[in-house]
Design a protein that fits this description.
Oligomer: single chain
Bound molecules: guanosine-5',3'-tetraphosphate
Number of helices: 10
Distance between the termini: 35 Å
Strand content: 5-15%
Length: about 280
C-alpha cells in the first residue's frame, strides 16, 4: 500500500477517527504481532478513552509463537483485552468473538440496568496502514454478515456490518500513523515494510536485520540460506548473494539485489517466525 507522509493526511485521518469514535462503544485496535509496541500510535489511548478496548496482535502467523503469548499477557496486564490473530486465514476469530464479548460486558450490563436489552455493541477497527485492517474486517465479518445503511436511495451515512445479533462493525477502519519516537522503532517498522524503504536504504536495513537475526534467530537464518551465521553482517549478505545467484557481471556479489531479496524473504515470513521486540518488564 502506498501511503504518504503528509501531515495533512494524518490530521484528516485523526479527525475522521475522532468523529467515528463518537459512534462506537468498542475499539478493536490492530497491531503487528512482530513489533506490537512500535506498530501502534499511543494517541489511541486518548482517542479511545472511555471506550471498551481490544488489541489484536495481527499477522501472528509470522511472529514468534512464544512471544505472541508474552505480548498477550503484557497487554492484558496493561488492562486491554488482547488476542493473537491471523486475519489472512481467519485463525483465532472464534476466540476474538469471546474476547469482544468480554470487553463489552460492562456496557451490556450498564444497558441492562437501564432497561435496554439486546442493543448491539458498535465497534470500529483501527491501526496503522498495512497492519491488516481490511483483511481483518473481511475475515471477521465473513460472508454471513449483512450490511446496513448506505443503500441506494437511502441517506448516505456510515455503513455498519452486522456481525451477529450482538455486534455491529463500522466498515471503514480508522487509520493511525506510526509514531517514530526513536531509531529502534524506525528500524522495526522499516524492517517490516510498514514505512517506506527510503527511510533506510535496503542494504543498510538488511545488514541491521541480519545483525538482529544473528543475535536472535541464527538457526532460521542458517537453515534458510545454508550459510555460516557466525560472520560479520556484510559477509552474510555476500553469502546470501552467492547462494541466491545475485551476482554482478564479473561474478562479484550484487549486494543491493541480495538485500532486496533478503528483505522480501524476511517480510513475507519465508525465513521463519520472528518477533522484533520483547514486551517491556512491568
Ligand atoms: P490495511 O487495511 O491495514 O492497510 O492492511 P491490509 O488488510 O490491506 O493488509 C496488508 C497486507 O497484510 C496484505 O498483504 C494482507 O494480506 C496482509 N495480512 C493481513 N493480515 C495478515 C495476517 O494475519 N497474516 C499474514 N501473513 N498476512 C496478513 P499484501 O501482500 O499487501 O496483499 P495480498 O498478498 O494479500 O494480496
Amino acid at each position: 500500500m502506498d501511503y504518504q507522509w503528509y501531515p495533512g493526511h494524518m490530521t484528516k485521518a485523526k479527525r475522521m477517527m475522532q468523529e467515528d469514535m463518537k459512534l462506537v462503544d468498542l475499539v478493536i485496535e490492530l497491531t503487528d504481532a512482530r513489533a506490537p509496541l512500535s506498530g501502534r500510535n499511543p494517541d489511541i489511548d486518548e482517542l479511545g478513552r472511555n471506550k471498551s478496548r481490544v488489541i489484536l496482535l495481527n499477522k501472528a502467523d509470522m511472529a514468534d509463537e512464544t512471544l505472541n503469548r508474552c505480548w498477550e499477557d503484557y497487554f492484558q496486564r496493561m488492562g486491554l483485552h488482547a488476542a493473537a490473530v491471523n486475519s489472512r486465514t481467519g485463525a483465532g476469530m472464534k476466540r476474538i468473538q469471546a474476547v469482544i464479548q468480554d470487553a463489552c460486558r460492562e456496557k451490556v450490563e450498564r444497558d441492562r440496568k437501564r432497561g435496554i436489552q439486546n442493543r448491539p455493541v458498535r465497534a470500529m477497527v483501527a491501526g496503522i496502514p498495512n497492519v491488516g485492517k481490511s483483511t481483518f474486517i473481511n475475515s471477521f465479518a465473513g460472508k454471513a454478515c449483512t450490511k446496513t445503511g448506505n443503500k441506494p436511495g437511502v441517506t448516505r451515512g456510515k455503513q455498519w456490518i452486522r456481525l451477529n445479533k450482538s455486534v455491529e462493525l463500522l466498515d471503514t477502519p480508522g487509520i493511525l500513523w506510526p509514531k517514530i519516537e526513536d531509531a529502534q522503532v524506525g528500524f522495526r517498522l522499516a524492517a517490516l515494510g510498514s514505512i517506506r524503504d527510503e527511510v533506510l536504504q535496503p542494504e543498510e536495513l538488511s545488514l541491521r536485520v541480519l545483525g538482529f537475526m544473528k543475535e536472535n534467530y541464527s538457526e532460521l537464518l542458517g537453515a534458510r540460506y545454508q550459510i555460516d551465521t557466525a560472520q560479520e553482517e556484510a559477509m552474510l549478505l555476500g553469502d546470501i548473494a552467492r547462494v541466491r545467484g545475485c551476482l554482478k557481471k564479473g561474478g562479484e556479489p550484487d549486494y543491493e539485489k541480495a538485500a532486496l531479496l533478503f528483505l522480501d524473504d524476511f517480510r513475507s515470513g519465508r525465513i521463519g517466525r520472528m518477533t522484533l521486540e520483547q514486551p517491556p518488564a512491568v
